[in-house]
Design a protein that fits this description.
With 290 residues, the chain is α+β, with helices and mostly antiparallel strands. The protein folds into 2 domains: 148 residues, Aspartate Aminotransferase, domain 2 (3-Layer(aba) Sandwich), CATH 3.40.640; 115 residues, Aspartate Aminotransferase, domain 1 (Alpha-Beta Complex). It contains 7 helices and 10 strands. A 4-stranded mixed beta sheet has the order 1-4-5-6. The chain has a 4-stranded antiparallel beta sheet with strand order 7-8-10-9, with helices on one face. Helix 1 packs parallel to helix 2, helix 5 packs parallel to helix 7 and helix 6 packs across helix 7. The mean pLDDT is 96.
Length: 290
């Protein structure tokens, strides 16, 4: 399927010559220019992650960007598709990650958190106009794959959502996300190689760099993100290492995504163990820190 790729919308690594304050407008303009170059009648949809997961190491879209994209897509008749598989289902402190931006997409893909990790479950959520277009053409949604509507998976998802509501877990994540980031900032204090600490709710990314001033990544052969994972696992912490976020090859990020009902003591333990693990991994490559 032919597709155009646009610049990453990353405030820590904006396109050359673009300031963080100009990032949202610059990247939204780039989208519109590409739609116009291709011709709006040839563009089916714009697909993006409101908070980029593994590919970027948790990169929230800057303020205003999603709203600009929504307006551009609506004006040109292009569907806006939000990939919320990683960042949705409460992970960012609201059920939809795009709630932070007061934006509603035409189609949204969700999975992972909607079943709490107990069993694989995913869904495509779409608007009434999209439904009407499908119904007019095909008579209904073309479902019928082997595990579509899997009863056990759906039951698990329904149970997880009941617990979300019963215990106010999504609201808890929204209110407590800043506390988690503060704990991590304290645990990582003094480590110059921590270039960026970012995220929303209980979806946090830490980017490690060789030079915090130039944001130069570590050489690929250091495999720092994997070293952090190994040290963390030995210390009793499971984290999500991700490499190649800078250019597809270089880049070291660590993702943390605690359970929604983690008590404060557990969040403090996560932060402390990550701080120890990052220091150990840096020492392995000759970058010891106190």
């Amino acid at each position: 399927m032919p597709a155009s790729l646009l610049s990453p919308v990353n405030a820590y690594r904006p396109p050359e010559g673009v300031s963080p304050d100009e990032l949202a407008r610059h990247c939204a303009h780039e989208l519109e220019e590409e739609i116009l170059r291709l011709g709006p009648d040839t563009v089916a949809a714009f697909v993006f992650e409101p908070v980029v997961g593994a590919a970027g190491g948790v990169v929230p879209a800057p303020t205003g960007y999603a709203a600009m994209v929504r307006e551009i897509c609506t004006r040109h008749g292009v569907l806006m598709i939000a990939d919320e598989v990683m960042c949705g289902s409460g992970r960012c402190g609201t059920y939809r990650a795009l709630t932070h931006d007061d934006v509603v997409p035409d189609i949204m893909s969700i999975a992972k958190g909607m079943s709490g990790g107990y069993i694989p479950l995913g869904a495509a959520v779409y608007s009434i106009p999209v439904r009407d277009a499908i119904t007019a053409t095909y008579g209904g949604v073309m479902t019928g794959h082997t595990f579509t509507g899997h009863t056990v998976a759906c039951a698990a998802g329904a149970a997880v959502h009941r617990i979300f509501r019963r215990d106010g877990l999504i609201e808890h994540v929204g209110a407590n996300g800043s506390h988690l980031r503060a704990l991590l900032a304290e645990a990582l204090a003094g480590i110059d190689e921590v270039g960026d600490l970012r995220g929303r709710g209980y979806f946090i990314g830490i980017e490690l760099v060789a030079d915090p001033v130039t944001k130069t990544p570590f050489p690929r052969d250091r495999q720092l993100f994997l070293r952090v994972r190994e040290c963390a696992f030995a210390n009793g912490l499971i984290c999500y290492p991700s490499g190649g976020n800078v250019d597809g090859v270089l880049g070291d990020t660590i993702i943390l995504a605690p359970r929604y009902n983690a008590p404060d003591a557990e969040l403090a333990e996560i932060a402390g163990k990550l701080g120890v693990s990052v220091r150990q991994a840096l020492a392995q490559i000759g970058r010891a820190r106190g």
